Amino acid sequence: MTVKTSFQFIAAGVAVAAFAHLPAVAQEATGAGASFPAPLYSKWAADFNKATGVKINYQSVGSGAGLKQIEAKTVDFGASDAPLKDEDLAAKGLVQFPTVIGGVIPVVNIQGIKPGELKLDGQVLGDIYLGKITKWNDPAIQALNSGLKLPDATIAPVRRADGSGTSFLFTNYLSKVNAEWKSKVGEGTAVNWPTGAGGKGNEGVAAFVGRLPNSIGYVEYAYVKQNKMTYALLQNASGKFASPDDTAFKAAAAGADWSKSFYQILTNQPGDGAWPITGATFILMHKSQDKPAQAGTVLRFFDWAYKNGDKTSSDLDYVPMPDSVKTSIVKSWSDIKDGAGKAVAFE
Q1: Helix or strand or coil: residue 60?
Q2: Per-residue pLDDT tens for 260-314?
Q3: Do residues 28 and 66 lie in contact, with contact meaning Cβ atoms separated by under 8 Å?
C-alpha cells in the first residue's frame, strides 16, 4: 500500500452535539512535516473527522520542510522527528511536544533473503553508507551472518533526498556507533551523503527499495509493515540483535526523562530488547498565535488523539506516550497564547 504525501479528509457534517459547548474554534486546521508519523496522523485525522466533523489537513513533506513552514506561519502546526533544543525553540518563539515513539528500520531488497534474516551492526551499516562496503558478500557482513548465503552483488544504498527527521535519527545513530561516519558526515536532517540514490519521504525510500534489486534503505516501521518490506535485525548497545516492534521501541524509550525537557534523543539506548534507532516525533507551534481559533483546533485534535488514539498508534506499531507525559504535554499548552496573552482555548 502506498502512503500518499497529502492527507485530506472531507468534513462529515456539523460537529456532534457533545462538542456544542466548545468556544469558537475553526472547523479546519493545516499541518505539514515529517513522513515518519504520516500513516498515524492520517488515521487519527479521519477518525477525528468522523467524531467531530472537523477537518485536519496534513501534508507529508519531511521534517525540514515542516520546520520551514511553521516558521513561515504557512501552516497551523509543523511536525518533525528531529526535536529542537529548548534554547532554539525560545529563539524561534516555538513550543514542541511529542506525540508518539517509533523506530527507523534498515530495509533491503535481496533475492532469497526473508524479513529478519539479515543481521547488521552500526559499524557495517555506517560503512555501507560511507561507500566502504560495496558488496553483499563482503567479509564484514558475512561475519555477522554465518550460514546465510549472500550474493556477490553490488549494494545499492538508498537515502532521503529531502530534509528529514528520519535521516536525523539514522545519522545520529550512525554518529554514535561509527567513528568515521561521525568525523566525515555527522548528523542532521540533511547531510552530505557519500553515496546512494535519494528518495523523497519515507514513501519514496520504501518505493525505491521495493523496485531496486540489492538495495538497502531506512524507513519508519509503519512503512515496513504497510509495504511488506524485508527488514534487517540491528545489533543494539547491549550487543543483542533486536527485532523491530513496538515493544523494542518502548524499551529504548524507557530511560527518557520527559519531565526535564521534551528534547529527548532515544538512539542507541541500553537494554537487551531496545531497538537502536528509536525516536519520538514532535509537533511544533508558535507560542504567540495570530490565528487562535486554528491553534485551538490543533490542540483539540491532539488532545482527542491522546485520549482516543492509543489503539490506533499501537495497531500501526507506534508507542503511545505514557499518561504522565500526556498530562505534562497538555499542561504545557498553557504557554500557547492568543494576541491578548490568554491561553488558547481548546476544550
Answers
A1: strand
A2: 999 999 999 999 999 999 999 999 999 999 999 999 999 999 999 999 999 999 9
A3: no
119 close to 243: Cβ distance less than 8 angstroms: no
Residues 6+ apart with CB under 8 A from 167: 159, 160, 188, 189, 190, 191
Give, in order, the Cα–Cα distances in Å from 215 to each of 63, 129, 159, 167, 170: 24, 11, 10, 17, 17
Cβ atoms of 122 and 106 within 8 Å: the answer is no
Closest by CA to 104, choosing from 279, 265, 229, 239, is: 279
Strands (E), the chain: 6-7, 28-33, 55-60, 77-80, 94-109, 119-120, 156-160, 197-199, 215-220, 230-231, 233-235, 241-242, 278-286, 319-320
Residues forming a β-bridge with 282: 80, 98
- The grid coordinates listed for 306 are 491522546
pTM value > 0.85: yes
